[in-house]
Recover the amino acids of this structure.
């Protein structure tokens, strides 16, 4: 494929030129290449999964961008480099991630606090915490409250629990498309 930054002839052109070549513009570059041909091979199971996931992501982007508020928020996240549509597709494809569970403030008493840090390409919408016993049974669970500055989420323990070996804290973060990421941290 040929690339050009300053070619006046093809600078703003895109699309197929007859049955000879295709013109594209990406990040300020004009590109010319051969016309892609569909594959004659049957897609693999993994390719079908990826295709279906991408179709779901594009469907999500089309639907969410009908809302002017979300359209504006996604456009701001793209900051003129990527379109709101591309940011929405990427947000769908990449789930949130819980990066840290700080349970140093947890001593087994009601009112103790557990701090969770979670990230997402766009926005973490909700974080839930579950206190687990040594057999992975649930002692309690509930929603976290986002800190004022938005840097972390705080879970306040509801009841007393005697800390025992094997006890753990599980945090689950959800993003706007409804995907989640989770992390479990053993309580020392």
């Amino acid at each position: 494929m040929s690339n050009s930054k300053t070619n006046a002839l093809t600078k703003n052109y895109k699309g197929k030129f007859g049955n000879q070549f295709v013109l594209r513009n990406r990040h300020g570059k004009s590109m010319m290449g051969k016309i892609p041909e569909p594959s004659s091979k049957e897609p693999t199971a993994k390719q079908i999964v990826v295709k279906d996931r991408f179709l779901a992501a594009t469907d999500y982007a089309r639907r969410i961008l009908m809302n002017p508020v979300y359209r504006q928020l996604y456009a701001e996240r793209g900051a003129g480099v990527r379109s709101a549509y591309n940011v929405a597709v990427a947000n769908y494809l990449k789930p949130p991630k819980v990066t840290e569970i700080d349970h140093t403030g947890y001593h087994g008493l009601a009112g103790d606090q557990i701090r969770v840090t979670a990230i997402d390409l766009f926005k973490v919408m909700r974080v839930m915490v579950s206190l687990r016993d040594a057999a992975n049974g649930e002692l309690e669970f509930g929603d976290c409250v986002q800190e004022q500055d938005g840097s972390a989420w705080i879970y306040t323990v509801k009841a007393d629990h005697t800390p025992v070996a094997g006890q753990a804290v599980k945090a689950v973060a959800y993003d706007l498309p409804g995907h989640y990421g989770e992390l479990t941290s053993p309580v020392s």
About this structure: Residues 45-93 form one domain. Residues 73 and 84 are 8 Å apart (CA to CA). The chain has a mean pLDDT of 88.
